Amino acid sequence: MSASVPPGVVCEGSHTEKHSGGAVDGWLAFEKVKLYTNAFIVEEGRILLGYKKRGFGKDLYNGFGGKVEPQETPLEAAVREMQEEAGITAPLKKCGTLFFVCEDIDHAFHIDIFVADEYTGAIIETDEMRPGWFSTSQGAPSSELPPIPYSRMWADDVFWMPMLLAGKPFIGRADFVQDGTMQKWWFAEV
Ligand SMILES: Nc1nc2c([nH]c(=O)n2[C@H]2C[C@H](O)[C@@H](COP(=O)(O)OP(=O)(O)OP(=O)(O)O)O2)c(=O)[nH]1
């Protein structure tokens, strides 16, 4: 199916809507868009997340990422951020794109999401992130790792993370109001 996608979401081919909802009809308005990255290591039934120690998204678990600098491609930025925030180098591949709008921030976030199934280097805690492994097989009694902590992640992640883990490319948008509530969302496989 290829029905229209939310404003800000770019979809060149066809897509299949997977999740949508929210308490309001309209999407939040935005003027400027800034480019960001977010990257994950997924290997052998586990995923590397970082507990964000400061700044935007403080106290939430997330992938490793940040702003794309003017001279960089999103892939270069994703590799750099992974090195800066977790100390490792990974052959990242793009797996999705997220458009994120916060009522109290003057720009929208275009976030390219990357994943790799291997890395080199030693994982380290940094000033920004405390990395840790989580089980990707939710509820599997044999796993010694904790399950993915969705209740301590951005509220939209539970919708697209299963597509990332299944290796299915995805797009989506989530709007948040000032108190941190997600007020509208839409996600699709592409
Ligand atoms: N999982 C998830 N990540 C999100 C959402 N919204 C959102 O901005 N992010 C990510 C994108 C970026 O990786 C990160 C925001 O970047 P940041 O605030 O760390 O960027 P920054 O400019 O401070 O970073 P830096 O370049 O200085 O390292 O949060 C979301 O809804 N879910």
TrEMBL record:
Residues 32-163 form the Nudix hydrolase domain. It catalyses: N(6)-methyl-dATP + H2O = N(6)-methyl-dAMP + diphosphate + H(+); N(6)-methyl-ATP + H2O = N(6)-methyl-AMP + diphosphate + H(+); 2-oxo-ATP + H2O = 2-oxo-AMP + diphosphate + H(+); O(6)-methyl-dGTP + H2O = O(6)-methyl-dGMP + diphosphate + H(+). Its main location: nucleus. The keyword Chaperone does not apply. It comes from the Eukaryota. One of its GO terms (cellular component) is cytoplasm. One of its GO terms (molecular function) is metal ion binding. The keyword Nucleus applies. Monomer. Belongs to the Nudix hydrolase family. PANTHER family: 7,8-DIHYDRO-8-OXOGUANINE TRIPHOSPHATASE, OXIDIZED PURINE NUCLEOSIDE TRIPHOSPHATE HYDROLASE. This is Oxidized purine nucleoside triphosphate hydrolase.
